[in-house]
Records
---
Amino acid sequence: PSRSDRLVHTRSEWVAAILQDFALVPQHMHIEVLDLCLQDLAEDVVSATALVHVRGPDAGETPAGQVPVARLVLVFRLEGAEWKIVHSGTSVPSGPLPQGSASATMARLQTDHRVLQAQLQESTRALAEAQQRIDAMDRTDNLTGLGNRRQFDHVLQQAWERAQRAATPLALVLLEVDALRHFMDRHGHLAADACLKTLAVTLTQMLQERPGALVARFGGDAFVLLLPGASLEEAHALAEGAVVAVRTLALPHEGSALGRVSMGGGVAQMVPVRDQRPDELVRAASAALARARQAGGNRVEPLPD
């Protein structure tokens, strides 16, 4: 396989590859493949193990029971469009086998190989799960448990591409806690953290009945709602509902004219077309949110006509 840069799939292909390598030996060698095992260890990792009898040019008529059983192991990994050998190994007993022990030795080698394969599969699975946990942590806001900005950007890109292909609308709502800095000055950082956690739960509950929607933490005092397929009117109504729900919580806010925690929101909606970028939708919602902030918050502003 190393000479042809291809992955073998059958016993005959494996035998042909081995014979091709041993054909380089100046004197005749007899090779008998006793067993071949191909195993998928992961989507991009494959192992190939062969048990073989190898007789050198001076072996003569050596009884089969005294011919060493060699184990050839190759591990391939897919890199780009090519399978590369990342591990190779050969093991041969140090001396001749006792009469009648060849079959037992081969069975033991096969058992050892299965054990090693199981261990490698378990290690590969554990590594994959660990990587998934790391990826999830990398895209999760530590405070609220919502997706963070990285997760939002990832989902937005996917939703944008789907909407562009299907020519369907994509709406976005940016929500910002009014005067959060004054809240922290009056109530402290721990109270602010508790407030943000409560708002995260409230917003998540609002989107439970909307498949495909995403709520994420956009920044220190801001949350974002991504609404595939929503019209501007639907998104505006949902944003208004969020503002009312937060106000109804009646969380004390001594630094606010209302005396309670409130939010302002900006809404934007687009049907993505070619040459547009998803950050245009974000900028439009940000501009709408800025108008809500300038008007004192506790309200929702749409994308202007």
Note: The chain has a mean pLDDT of 84.
---
Amino acid sequence: MSLFKLTLATAIFSVCLPAAAEAATPYSSASKKAYARLKEIDTFCWDMHESVNSKSPVYSFRVLCKDRDADALFKQLLKEARLAGQMYALCGLWFTDPVAFAVAVEPYRHSKEQINVLRVIVEAKEPVSEFVEHHGAAAVRLNNNKDTCKAWMKRNPNAGGMEYDIIGGGLPCAMRDDGGF
């Protein structure tokens, strides 16, 4: 190998290796912390006022939503997390991969398990199947992952309120977008 080719190869490797090392660990420090919080959480906390508190699960969910690798993070979270963390993963997948979401949510629609849910200051156990899919007339059903709860309200002025669940997109939208508005 000539000296020129050796020098050129060295220059290419010196530029490419740091980029390859960076690509191997793509998650930011904030995303790693957020992932760790959601992975270990035992209660699904739904308090939009806590979205600015860096220790809250809503904040952690939003951090993962903004990560360039959100889809991979939510898919991994679904595999590794406790039940409450799996619900956050489903909310994320609703945005990042609707096809994978439709497959992943199916077993939860029929689950007999109970999940701890904290809504502002009220904590209660709910059947996972009802948490994932509400069957009432006021159940928010967004058209797709670009739709909003505000648009749904305009389309359904006589719904008699709003019931958020995961399968219809209301809860994912609310978690990501301050109540979905």
Note: The chain has nine helices and three strands.
---
Amino acid sequence: MDAEEFSVIQENCRMRNIETSYFETLEEAKLYILNIIPVDSTIGIGHSATLQKMGITQSLI
């Protein structure tokens, strides 16, 4: 996806009050996700194939 495509998607999401972020690498995205989860919080992942493939599920255990 190029910058122009992302800009259009980001604006469409913003108009629907959906926050977006863009990461160059999977590792950047994974670190961001893990860092925004408060310590001692309980989360549900609903058997997300995406989170499992990213390795986030294992990192949360």
Note: Residues 24-61 form one domain.
